[in-house]
Amino acid sequence: MPSDSLPLIWRKFGERYDLDGNYCENCKTAYFPARQVCPKCRRRGKLVPQKMPKTGKIISFTEVFSGPAGFEHETPYFIAIIELENGTKLLSQIVDSEKEKIKIGARVEKVFRKISDIDPEGPIAYGYKFKIRE
Amino acid sequence: MRSVSIIGFGCTQFAEHWCKSFRQLIAEAGIEAMMNAKIEGKAIEALYGGSMASGRFVGQEHIGALIADQLGLTPIPATRVENACASGGTALRTGYMAIKSGEHDVVAVGGIEKMTDVGTDQAAIALGGAGDQETELFHGASFPALYALMARKHMEEFGTTEEQMAQVAVKNHHNAMFNPKAQFHREITVQDVMESGYVASPLKLLDCAPITDGAAAVILCETEKARKICEQPIEIIAAEQASDSLSLAGRKSLTETMAAKVAAKKAFEKTGLTAKDIDFAEVHDCFTIAEIFAIEALGFCEKGQGGKFTEQGKTALDGEIPINTSGGLKGKGHPVGATGIAQAVELCLQLQGKAEKRQIKDAKIGLAHNVGGSGATCTIHIFRALEGKK
Known about the structure:
Structural class of chain A: mainly beta
Shape of chain B: globular
Oligomer: heterodimer
Number of strands of chain B: 11
Largest interface: A-B, 34 and 35 residues
Structural class of chain B: alpha/beta
Largest sheet of chain B: 9 strands, mixed
Mean pLDDT of chain B: 97
Distance between the termini of chain B: 24 Å
Largest sheet of chain A: 5 strands, antiparallel
């Protein structure tokens, strides 16, 4: 699996550990993951590195009962689209939360977790997940 | 202005074909299309084959040449086209452009997926590649999970219910009863869907299109020539395509598919038609919610009203705008790369009056809506029946 690749896991440290994205100073828009070019301004854009806020709210969610290979031992688990405080959106698992509290509009905060461990001989991928803010 | 018509079509049985290989299936569909067109292989100038993930499903890339070889069509140029679940629709549009441009007069277009040579966990990985590998599949977002996120938001924003989504599956299973090539010939009820167990809430097993093996093919021809050699040519009066962010998080809205709206708008503008002029449509119901999104994007009903519209029976065979007369992806089956071409085959059958028990009365104009991923690619084709040779 490409997602097992050591170089891939290594080059994603900033994005997946610290929510490193970027920001266009021309149109004042934040991007996560970081982009090579601002899709609104293109050549007139000026992208600078920026860390994303660690809190946000749930836009939509689902409880996954049949996951792809590598996630069998975690099912069922929650996946959500989250809007961070600066308006950027990302997809993440929701963990360590009471099921009843996982709703559209619920406030969430970032936590650091193991994401997948597909190959017992291969590297373990870590990254962001989110939990309900108490 | 050059125009393009379909002069022949073929489609294999959609099923779990444990006894047939990738190459057997595409050859079977291709031969049927050539026989149906009543042309010889030497008349075909180029070939386009749509397949989403032949590499992951059967370990075979480079399928353009493989298909040409299996059909005895070498040395014509043969090219694979890939756009996830819209690979078939995109291959069709590519063939259309090859004729429209004046480069070729007769082109074969096929679509195929052989999905059951791997287990469902591996199939889930292959299909997950239609979404964003690094920011969706990596986090465990299966393909049903992506549509579940869209469904949940649609429910919250517009009051769409799980029962309304179930109605899509019930209707499409009913339509598939009349399609001998469909994978399922079994009526289901709303209760069956509701009790079928969550795959990714709110989507249940019977909200999802199945894993299917199958292939379909059409023969395209420049229209003036088509009128001389074919009794019932089907003209492609629009072939449009649009793109959007691969990931759901990158979209402006979770409750509409922008690529479908843009492609449909262009197709309507170019033909001078509106949604009211369409007699029937095949839309991409990989999940029941996807059909609701489709009929809203195409303008058959108001935004947010797709669930109610379906519940009222307006998309049934005898409804205001019959949707998925073939049984759709849900009832007919969904060999992903073949789906866009299989939709074209259904349009041809209806427009030629050969759809037997599922025939729509006075079907003159049909539309096909084929989606890749969770909506990042959409192709829209509009067909009409022409008078051919007497």
